[in-house]
Amino acid sequence: MNWFEYFDGYQTALVTTSGAFLGVIITSIFHLIQKYFANRHERNMKKLDFVAKFKSEQLVEPVIKFLDSDLATMQETYSLVLVNKDSRSNFQIKSDHLASLSAVTARVKGLGDPKLNALFDEFTRKRLHIGNSMDSVGKDPFKELGSAITLAGDIIGLLLDKVRDVEN
């Protein structure tokens, strides 16, 4: 028996049914391909979110907190200019944040930017320059403080660029 004889008179139905099944199969294949790419994109976005969050919370925020604390210490040191030299030794300047200097330096170096490393190293020495310039003739502690503020701004700008690099 010939199969075509069995479907004799039903060719239109057979073609329509075959076309419908073929359409369902093709649509299902394209749907699976679309799902694959959507899942891959979602995984990549999660990776980027993790990297951005890690960079922000573990690398950038501690550095900014340190900069804020160190600038406050520098401002306190500079304010001693208004105090009599004999009374300066009675003042206690908060330096608790200096215990985290090596950890913060490691975070800055972990970002891998030589310019940022150089700026941060220079910034960390500014505290000493302010203290030394207070007792030295011809040195201006306000100028040193202003320089430290400028360095801190440059460091924050570079850190912001690093965070933006992850987003792009």
In summary, what is this structure?
By secondary structure, the protein is an all-alpha fold. The protein has helices at residues 3-6, 11-79, 101-110, 114-135, 141-167. It is built from five helices and no strands.
- Sheet with the most strands, sense and barrel status: none
Low-confidence stretches: none
Please bin the fraction of helical residues.
over 70%
Mean pLDDT: 86
Please indicate the percent range of residues in DSSP E strands (runs of 2 or more). Answer: under 5%
Beginning-to-end CA distance, first to last residue: 67 Å
Number of helices: 5
Class by helix and strand content? mainly alpha
Beta-strand segment tally? 0
Shape: rod-shaped
H/E series, N to C? HHHHH
Commentary on this structure:
With 168 residues, the protein is mainly alpha-helical. The protein is 79% helix and 0% strand. The chain contains 5 helices and no strands. The protein has helices at 3-6, 11-79, 101-110, 114-135, 141-167. α2 packs parallel to α4. The model has no long low-confidence stretch (mean pLDDT 86).
